[in-house]
Amino acid sequence: MSRQIRIVVDAMGGDNAPDVTVRGAVEALKVSEKIAIILTGRTNDIQKELEKYTYDKERIRIVHAEDVIGFDEPPVMAIRKKKDSSIVVGMNLVKRGEADAFVSAGSTGAILVGGQFVVGRIKGIERAPLAPLIPTAKGASLLIDCGANVDARASHLVQFARMGSIYMEHVAGVKNPRVAIVNIGAEEEKGNILVKETYPLLKECTDINFVGSIEARDIPKGNADVIVCEAFVGNVILKLYEGLASTLLKEVKKGLMSTLRSKIGALLIKPALKKTMKEFMGADQGGAPLLGLNGLVVKAHGSSSSEDIKQAIIQCIQFNEEEINEKIKENLTTE
Amino acid sequence: MSRQIRIVVDAMGGDNAPDVTVRGAVEALKVSEKIAIILTGRTNDIQKELEKYTYDKERIRIVHAEDVIGFDEPPVMAIRKKKDSSIVVGMNLVKRGEADAFVSAGSTGAILVGGQFVVGRIKGIERAPLAPLIPTAKGASLLIDCGANVDARASHLVQFARMGSIYMEHVAGVKNPRVAIVNIGAEEEKGNILVKETYPLLKECTDINFVGSIEARDIPKGNADVIVCEAFVGNVILKLYEGLASTLLKEVKKGLMSTLRSKIGALLIKPALKKTMKEFMGADQGGAPLLGLNGLVVKAHGSSSSEDIKQAIIQCIQFNEEEINEKIKENLTTE
Q1: Alpha helices of chain A — where are they, by DSSP H?
Q2: In angstroms, how far apart are the furthest CA atoms of chain B?
Q3: What is the average per-residue pLDDT within B40-56?
């Protein structure tokens, strides 16, 4: 058997911690023999949850952390002050090489800051982008960057494109992934200063399959596998996706309650509609990787279910086995 | 009776010109006695369409323009070279004071360039933003700017906020419209350089109801009436709106065809679903104004129906009667 993959799970992170985080961890153990899990957080709380399940006690252990970082705390301050929080303690395990990956459904800001300052970037990587998968008509595309570091430079975007391409090829299994840059028109001369500067650099990259610009209207169609953009724009795309899908669904539901005929129809379509929405919106695989770090950090939704946490953990196996960080080092940092 | 409002309609603009443009113009005449219409384009083609209808011949006339600017022509070159195009001829009528407004479903790029260089900006206005209405759960919000001039400065965004506020209050009839700036978090210290610079300036404006930042996920909820952003971001929001709504609807339809039960349900809900989608996506009132110009320019969708063209024309009445340009001059250019 190959070496064990050691994954830290922030037991205290997310709206429904620690019950869903612990359950997700226990369920992930059953999926693969290869993983061992370290739960960070308050030992008593975690122990109480663990007692509900039967599991391989050799493969799960607790590392105590007294503090929890809340969703409303200023991230930089929280990471600096709360050394004994489940996030900082967990990230330090990765930093010291005692674990390979860290999964958390806690504060996005704190995870991004902690990723950069506790785990640290791979030497030569200028920025660590947050890269969620977003649903499309053809499956899912990687939206890179959606992090907190806005006002990126062209060189950052080029690294995002190359890291995103490696991730999609080796973790998501998309052969020769199509890389596109978000733009306001299809032509090369279109765009803002940043895009105009980045476009020719991406064209020169021989290690990616650059297909040019993508307009926002074509993103949901799945016209590219890796969608490169600056974090402000990425954040707008990601959040508008969520917001618009949710509003549209609410409007449709409201509309269906308007007549007796449509009410009956609504009952009949309910299972199919639910399935479609779940398939479409559920393409995010439980968590978004923060790429380019010395180790893997995965950010799961604050509202994650135990299934989401499980998926986020499983994602780390592929990342580790495919040696993504080694590939990033080889391809991006040896120039 | 008050003075006639003279509206130029680009008879040749759009996917279905000149039949829908001419029909839209004739239908608009019936809605209001106040308007007179000038159709620009090829006289013979227009005449042939006009012959299909009965209308008040005193209130509609043709100004011949031999050329048409296509959707795929580089805008700056097209406006410069095609002096005898329906767009340039029509805009010159507005520039010379022979008409009050110009409506076109033609090339967005050409309309934006022509607006700036043929019609010209109001003195003191730094940029003319394109401001479409986008649908929300509460009705519609003005998204300003979605034009072609990216990389805006803070002072531009402040003018957009103030012009947008005047438009929403006096044309859309929203009392004391809530103005928000698109951001990646709700807090004042969040954002990119541009947003951080603009935010305090908006806070200082005493003539608008600035409510702070809006995250993209809250735009479809209708949490603000005027959504201020730089044109690159506005373009992404506008096009993602279109693209995501269309993809989601397609996925839902496909899902409904998956079982016999849902197929029957689909038949029953069809009218209600269609009505909902029409109500939700049809909030754009036919056209988007290009604000801050010496006259009004309205950009209608390339795929406009005659009803859309009619709505775009009617929109010009309110704009003219409420003396929006005078209000912009008074409020924005006397400092």
Answers
A1: 19-31, 43-50, 75-81, 86-95, 108-114, 154-170, 193-204, 231-256, 260-281, 306-321, 324-332
A2: 67
A3: 96
Rounded Cα distance, B85 and B293, in Å: 20
Q: Are strands A287-290 and A60-64 parallel, antiparallel or unpaired?
A: unpaired
HSE-CB of A263 using CA atoms within 13 angstroms:
4
For chain B, what is the radius of gyration of the CA atoms?
21
pLDDT tens track for A72-119: 899 999 999 999 999 999 999 999 999 999 999 999 999 999 999 999
Q: Among all chains, which residue has been given the structure tokens 């409020």?
A: B331
Q: CA A200, A203, A207, A212 torsion: positive or negative? A: positive
Q: How many CB atoms lie under 10 A from the CB of residue A199?
A: 22
Those residues with Cβ within 8 angstroms of residue A10's Cβ, 6 or more apart along the chain or in another chain = A17, A21, A40, A41, A86, A87, A90, A102, A103, A104, A105, A106
- DSSP letter at B122 equals P
- Cα A53 to Cα A5, A28, A32: the distances in Å are 22, 13, 17
* ipTM of the shown complex: 0.90
Least confident of A203-217, B81-95, B120-134, B280-294: B280-294
Min Cα distance B13 → chain A (Å) is 20
β pairing state of A226-228 and A178-183: parallel
| Element of type H or E holding B23 | helix B19-31
Residue B96's contacts (CB-CB under 8 Å, 6 or more residues apart) are none
- Chain B hits for A184, Cβ within 8 Å: 148, 150, 231-232, 235-236
Q: What is the pTM (predicted TM-score) of this model? A: 0.92
Determine contact, residues B225/B179, Cβ cutoff 8 Å: yes
A136-to-A169, A236, B243 alpha-carbon distances in Å: 17, 16, 10
Retrieve residue B3's tokens.
């003075």
Encode A210-269 in three state secondary structure.
Answer: EEEEEEHHHCCCCCCCEEECCHHHHHHHHHHHHHHHHHHHHHHHHHHCCCHHHHHHHHHH
What does the block give as tokens for A137?
Answer: 């008509």
Tell me whether residues B250 and A137 touch, CB distance under 8 A. yes
pLDDT in tens, A268-277: 888 888 887 7
Q: Which residue has the higher pLDDT, B148 or B158?
A: B158
- The verdict on a CB contact (< 8 Å) between B262 and A271 is yes
Query: Nearest by CB to A243, which of B193, B221, B235?
Result: B221
User: Do A243 and B220 lie within an 8 Å CB cutoff?
Assistant: yes
Burial class (CB in 10 A: 0-12, 13-18, 19+), B90: buried
B65 with B90: CB under 8 angstroms?
Answer: yes
Angle CA A65–A70–A75, to nearest 5: 95
Q: Which of B171, B97, B142, B207 is nearest to B321 (CA)?
A: B171
Q: Which amino acid would we find at residue A6?
A: R
- The helix (run of H) or strand (run of E) holding residue B170 is helix B154-170
Of A239, A1, A213, the closest CA to residue A134 belongs to A239
Task: Please give the radius of gyration of chain A, using alpha carbons only, rounded to the nearest integer.
Answer: 21
Q: Are B175 and B161 in contact (CB under 8 A)?
A: no
Q: Do B240 and A246 touch (CB under 8 A)?
A: no
How far is Cα A263 from Cα A267, in angstroms, rounded to an integer?
Answer: 7
